[in-house]
Amino acid sequence: MPVAVFTRTELERWGEAMGASLHPPALIALSGELGSGKTTLVQALCRGYGVEEPVTSPTFALVHEYRAPGSPVYHIDLFRIGAPGELRSIGWEDALGAHALVCVEWPERAGTALPRPRLAVALEHVTGDPDRRRVTW
Question: Of all helices (H) and strands (E), which one includes residue 124?
Fold first, then answer.
């Protein structure tokens, strides 16, 4: 698994390049502690993918849908999901079944409902360097 340490600017550039290379259907699973950069990375992925509108955290809405030239983009935040059984109520199966880019924060909360294949990206704080993140994919 590749590992890199990025500043925020580097993380955004990396995410934009990755977003530009994606073809639907694509599922990106982003894990990491609060504040590790998951939403920042999704914003960059979306820019690279062609989303022109502002991309915001769906922590309270759970799902945001955006338009891009190649397909819709679903940004799903499972932080507030208590159990995988709750996924049906947020349109989980519809998003995963769509010809779309699907970015999922807190994917571990989906349990076995998170299908493969997918790109798994883990973000971590770098001890002693609050401006950098360790990214594993």
Answer: strand 119-126
Residue 123: phi and psi, rounded to 5, are: -115, 140
| Structure confidence by residue, pLDDT tens digits, 58-100 | 888 899 999 999 999 999 999 999 999 999 999 999 999 999 9
**CATH code for the domain in which residue 112 is found:** 3.40.50.300
Task: Quote the number of domains for the chain.
Answer: 1
Expressed as residue numbers, the domain containing 129 is 3-136
* pLDDT of the residue at 83: 92
Radius of gyration of the chain (CA): 14
What's the rounded Cα separation, in Å, for the pair 109 and 107?
5
pTM across the whole model = 0.95
Amino acid identity for residue 31 in this structure: S
Q: Which of 19, 33, 125 is nearest to 79 (CA)?
A: 33
Closest to 73 in 3D by CA, of 100, 45, 40? 100
